[in-house]
Structure formats: C-alpha cells, structure tokens
Design goal:
The chain has about 150 residues and is an all-alpha fold. The chain has helices spanning about 20-40, 45-65, 90-100, 110-125, 135-154. It is built from 5 helices and no strands. The longest helix has 21 residues, at about 135-154. The relative contact order is 0.15.
Amino acid sequence: MTLLSNATLDDGAVVPSLPVLTRLKLSRELATIKTDISAVAAGPMAALTRLKLIARANQIRVQLGGVISPPVAPAVADPAPQPEPIAEREPPQVAELRDVIAGRHDGLGLDALLSKIESAARALFDADSLAGDVESLAHEAVSHWARLELQING
C-alpha cells in the first residue's frame, strides 16, 4: 500500500513528522474552518470572526508543513495620490484599509497584513465608525487578503 505525502502544500515543503491522528485532526479542523468562513454573515463583527478563522487556518497550514507568508513583491505605488479636502479627511484606519485594498502592504506577508486589517477594523469599530462605506472597505480589505492568501497558498 502506498501512502501519499502532503508535501505539495508548497514547492520544497518539508512535512514535519506529525503523528497520523494529529495530521487527521488538523486536516479535519482546516476543512471545518473553510466551511465556517463561507458561512460567516456580513457585518463588522463577522469580519473580525472571519479574520480569526483565517488566522487559525494559517496556523494549521504551518503545522501541516505549509509555508504561509513568503515574501511578496511590493506593489507599484500610484503616481500621485489626490489630496482630500480638509473637511472630509478620513480616520487613518480608513486610509490604511484603502492602502490594503490597493495592494500597498502586500509585501508585509499574510500574517502582518491580516493583523493590519484586524487592527484597523477593531479601531473603527471601537470608534463607532465601522458602518456603511467604511464597513464595505473592511470587507474589501478582507477579500483582498483572501485573494492574496489563495494566490500564495493555493
């Protein structure tokens, strides 16, 4: 009987020697998390829940031998950002979310990018500013992170 190795998590991965039952438990938990992520509803607290689930999924991938945060080439900066009128300036966390969506922080790695999104969303939520367009920005930032994570980890 031939056992297949899960060494295809990334190129050149060295799979740690985990007991079979531990690998099965982690794989099951990863599958459950993927289902839970797709079932999370919309809303500011749901975005934080989704971030926590994604972070746990990354921890499991590392335990299974995958590489989570390879360096990513930084995105090319926009030529000249348009200054906003002083009366309409956004909180710095909103600007941070816009930068995440634009890919300006992609070179930080997945974990650092996820922390940046979570910190901004939490600060906006605490200031009662996470509603309407700002909430949509938080969701777009999480979606950008998820697309980047999928691109890196498959």
